[in-house]
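Case study 2.
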Amino acid sequence: MGILSRIGGWFGMAGALSEQPGDQNAAPSASLVPGAANIGPDGALQLSAVWACVDRRATTVASLPFFAYEQKNGEKTLARNSRLYQLLHDSPNGRMTPFEFWRAMILNHDLRGNAYARIVRDQRTGEAVAMWPMPADQVVTAVLPDGSMVYHYYIGGDVAVLAEQNVLHLKNLGNGTVGLSKLEFMRASTDEAARAQSNATQLFGNAGKPTGVLMVDNVLSDDQRNAIRKSFAGLTTGNMARLMVLEAQFKYQQVSMSPEDQQLLETRHFSVEEFSRWFDVPPVLIHHSNVTTWGSGIEQIMDGFYKLTIRPMLVGIEQAVRKRVMTPRQRATMTGEFSLDALLRGNAKDRAELYAQLVQNGIATRAECRQLENLPPIAGSDELTAQSNLMPLHLLGKVKPTGVNAPEPVKQ
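Prediction:
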């Protein structure tokens, strides 16, 4: 590390990896591209690729059920009657469904690097009974001299100071104290995409009419120039198919570049791929052309997306909930987990194959599989079974096969 970086770290002015007492800063200390405009969340979400990436990640996570389990003697059972189950699976607060709550949290997490939720607790037991999202732009995180954290929530002209045990804090990539604001780090990319979109809108909003110059061999007076400008302006406005007639030996020379010359379309295609990298979403999942289409290797792409993008996010959320939401007593006896099995609900073939393997190998009962399919239990289905052809060698010839014409076992 250079001497300037050390000095900056001593005075709290270092970059993304620094930590300092007091208020924390999640923005970069320097801009890679000077002059890049800060378009903010509202501007970024007007770029279709940004919206699609954030929406794909947020809705995927929010669509997964979050279960609470009781743990005892190495066994887990659904804690349906617990407050934790009701909070995580049924209703995080009086206004939102779990889907709406987690989608709002991931939106803040992906754009601002941090997602915050105020935790309301039972005064008697300390158990969490509600979680309310707090917009990341209205929260300032501070580290106190003793190392603990407090959160200043600015709303309606007031400020609420919350202790760390009353705030669920989801952090994106960062130094462990706060996550880095992705929107600030990708400012050059969003500025470039916004300028390309603006240029395209202006070009086609002008009906694709290029700019140019009128050339004539004679020297014109000021009055003639003004008259020509006025006449030519009338010719170039209006319907795209309008015929332009030049008289008195005038010639028209185009001076602006076409969209192809400006590589406008290529730039906009590249922006989609650029945002896919920023948000770690395969381009095909946001309907980008010129890449693998649906049905051609998409299953492997989605499998990688679930494993390398969604699963790490779920682990971070589960651990944050365990650390901040659960009480010490709940941490000793309970756990909370997202169910990735819900991703198979859209594929009947994969579900059937999974259930068959679980039942045939004695891992799950038919009743458990029927419950996952919302089917009623039937008699005799709550027993573990296994294929008889997977038999220990010392039992060969000693187990009598079933059937009408089954032969007698060979005596040894």
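The first helix runs from residue 3 to 10.
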